[in-house]
Design goal:
Elements lengths: L8 H14 L9 H25 L4 H25 L13 H21 L1 H5 L4 H26 L6 H15 L1 H5 L9 H20 L4
């Protein structure tokens, strides 16, 4: 049975993403619903970074797969929220759309490809060895992460300042060199439902941090 309590690593990554968004100067909320929808996207990015570290920690495949479904669900929810808020935003998915939107679409499609290929044994068996498939899977994962980072940074909506880019670089380093982090903060498998709750809390926290004005 999966653990119902998360490891310390996943909340740490989510908290770092929340700190990154709030580290910019002159931040202004765009409204609870809008910022929550974007928060779901940031949760997906945090989840993808966690998946890199989870894999490096040798977590059982079933946990890794379940968390990848959560990341995909977050991306779908991120997009659907915006289309529900304003259906005219569908124009941003047509030719001539801003570059950052295409980065987002590419990241989404790559994550679907990663999940589909990992779940299909005939595809996995078409590789010379399991190690060859894992290398291919990891490289494709990097392309997905780079596309999502491009989506977040090129838009310039939330990540603009040097401190924010420094924190983003720290998260990327954590994904590139997970052993540096895992040495001090170990990862372990836990319920994907708990992982989803953490992600939603990040989205809510992001919306609250940008829209609640303290006296």
């Amino acid at each position: 049975m999966p653990h119902s309590v998360p490891d310390r690593l996943s909340p740490g990554i989510f908290a770092t993403v929340l700190l990154m968004v709030n580290a910019g100067s002159g931040r202004v909320g765009a409204g609870w619903v809008w910022d929550f929808a974007n928060g779901l996207g940031f949760s997906a990015m945090a989840g993808l970074i966690y998946l890199f570290m989870q894999h490096s920690a040798g977590i059982a495949t079933r946990y890794h797969r379940a968390c990848s479904y959560v990341v995909l669900l977050l991306i779908v929810a991120h997009a659907l929220f915006f289309l529900l808020i304003d259906p005219l935003l569908l124009e941003y998915l047509k030719p001539g759309a801003p570059a950052y939107m295409w980065f987002g679409v590419i990241g989404f499609l790559l994550i679907i490809l990663l999940i589909v290929t990992a779940d299909r044994l005939p595809i996995k068996r078409s590789f010379v060895s399991g190690a060859a498939f894992r290398r291919w899977h990891r490289r494709l994962s990097w392309l997905a992460l780079l596309a999502i980072i491009g989506h977040v940074t090129i838009s310039g909506l939330y990540i603009r300042g040097p401190v924010q880019f420094a924190l983003l670089a720290l998260l990327v380093v954590a994904a590139v060199l997970p052993a540096l982090i895992l040495r001090w903060v170990p990862a372990r498998g836990f319920s994907s439902a708990v992982f989803f709750v953490l992600a939603v809390f990040l989205a809510l926290g992001l919306a609250a941090s940008l829209n609640v004005r303290l006296p």
